[in-house]
Amino acid sequence: MIKLLKIEFKKIRTYKVFWILTGLYFVFLAAGILLAEFMINNMVNGVNRRMPIPFPHVAIYYFPDVWQNVAFFASIRYVLIFPAIIMIILITNEFTFKTIRQNVINGMSKTEFLASKLLIILLMAVIMSIVLAAGAFFIGLSHSGLSEVNFFSQGIPFMVGFFISLLCYMVYAFFCGFILRNTGLSIAIFTLYSLIIEPVIYFIFRAPFMFKNTIYTYLPVNSVIRLTEYPAIPMLKKIMGVNLQEHVSLTACLIPIAYSAVMIVTVFLIMKRKDL
To answer: pTM score, two decimals?
Structure first.
């Protein structure tokens, strides 16, 4: 395993695109999380100008709510698209520059090549999740201190949920990149489906004129982002009647994991049968 990771690290160590996109991901993630409360309260101010009874401002950075809120904003599809694009580029470059053939010629089996990419996905998901958890901890600490005894244990399920979301979403990107094998086409189709096509399908199945169904919960990308479905904002429950999420459902986690498993097995079978 260590050997495979070393090989992958040698490929990305001097690859500027990888480091630039990774840096942009963390910049946009940090900016989105830190500006979220400001933007929400700006919307509240706009609504209050037309309401006789003003809505209260929200606070999203206090323990224990900060864990759920940070996981929610980090799981938005427009944020997750960055690590997905990184993964697509890493996969399609193997075919563009014929490095996959060189690896096989040098003695790496097709299974080892597949394992090396999955290890990179796992490692990226672990590192990004740790960074997010550390960021949530320090944000919560700066706002509420250590007054909440169980603040950390309440955050673990949402951090695990984010880890599963990120891991599965990158596996989706890995699958798309491997099937299409072209960087531009893979990014275009994956982005088009994730950001436009599936949201349209989602709203069609949620439309009032449709028969009552829960099909939208099983859509691939939606199954990823709904692990942390709502931010922890009590006003949503009190005023809008939204049932706030109290934990990450194990059943909900199994849906994207099942999709990911099917995609990994499909790629493995294709690699076994198809010429590289």
So the answer is: 0.92
